Structures are given as C-alpha cells and as structure tokens.
Amino acid sequence: MARARRHDPGRRERIVDAALRVVGRAGIAGLSHRAVAAEADVPLGSTTYHFASLDELLVAALRRAGEGFGRAVRESPALADPDADLATALARLLGEWLEADPAGAELEYELYLAALRRPALRPVVAEWTGAVAAALARRTDPATARALVALMDGVCLRVLLTGDAYEEGETRAMLGRVLRPGTPDGAPDGAP
Asked: Are 67 and 88 in contact (CB under 8 A)?
C-alpha cells in the first residue's frame, strides 16, 4: 500500500528560512542540505526535493534576504515625495536599515558577495540591484540611480567589514555629490 504524501504547503519557505539561519550562524561554508534539514526540522529528502543543489537553495535564500532593503526603498514615503531631498532620505533610510537589523544586513551581504564564487547567484544580485535602481530612477535618471546603488553598497560594506559606525551626515554628503556633481558637499547650488 502506498504511503499518503503529507501536505505541507509552507515547507519550502521553512527550508529557505532555515537556510538563512544556518548561513547567519555558520556562514555559507556551514550550509549543507543536512544542516538545513535539521534546522527546519524536516526530512533530508525534503531539502533535496525542493532544492536539487545548494546553489538553488542559496538563490532562494538570497532572494529572501535581499527583500529587506529593496522593500524599504520601494515603500519609503520620503523617497516617494518629489519634494524630499533624496540624499537626506537615502542616508536616513540606509542608517535605519543598518541599525534595525545588523545581523540581517551582514547575512544579506554575505549572500550577495557569495556571487563572486557562485555564478548561479549573479542573476539574483543583478535583480536586486536592478530593482533598487529602478525604484530610485523614479526620482533621478537610470545611470544616477545605479551610481547611488553602488555608493550605498560601498558604504554598507565599509560599515559591515570595518566595524566603523555609520555616519549619516557623511553618507548624505556623498550621495549629494552623486546627485548634484560639482557642488562641494552635494548641497543644491546656492545652499550653505
């Protein structure tokens, strides 16, 4: 007699969440189907059923981890306000994101940088940066939006890798220089 298959519609999502916890605790080197199955409290076969390879699992994990900052940008009322200073709004948003969940930011960037050695992750990184740039392009042109994303990535990496405190004022000035080239601190022409 055939055994009835257990219906568990949330299992795939629990496996992705478990993969994020494993990577957050043990790094990508600690990720295995066995470790994720134990963390998710599912049979080992469930992880390999839903994700044939670790790269597939990492792609799903990176997509999930990358939702945080992208969502914050898309949903920011200040960024939607055409009268708000974009450099100020972005610097504040970046600081709030880094301070709200530093471990989540570290996890996101660990997965993001894993694309250097795992080409399967590169399209997801391109999707993530493209989505943030598209959201910013509503307030500026596409090339400037991509430059802002690159600058914010650099600021995040510096903070995460060096342990330096996030400096909102410094970040605002750098973002302002990208948005308003030719002015000393990125301030609008004629502003103090």
From this structure: no
Q: Alpha-carbon distance 89 to 140, whole Å?
A: 14
The Cβ of residue 37 has, within 10 Å, a number of other Cβ atoms equal to 18
Residue 16's closest CA among 66, 50, 67, 52?
A: 50
Q: Amino acid identity, residue 52?
A: A
On the question of pLDDT at 39 being above 90, the answer is yes
Measure the CA–CA gap between 66 and 94, rounded to whole angstroms.
Answer: 14
CB 147 within 8 A of CB 137: no
In angstroms, what CA-CA distances link 120 with 20, 56, 112, 147?
17, 8, 11, 24
Helix (H) or strand (E) holding 95: helix 86-100
Q: Using CA atoms, how far apart are residues 114 and 110, in angstroms rounded to an integer?
A: 6
Residue 116 per-residue DSSP state? T
Q: How is residue 121 written in tokens? A: 């992750």
Q: Give residue 192's pLDDT.
A: 45
Cβ neighbors of 108 (< 8 A, separation 6 or more) are 65, 66, 68, 69
Mean pLDDT (whole number) for 14-38: 94
From CA 77, how far away is CA 186, in angstroms rounded?
22
> Rounded CA gap, 72 and 57, in Å?
24
Separation CA 24–CA 93 (nearest Å): 23
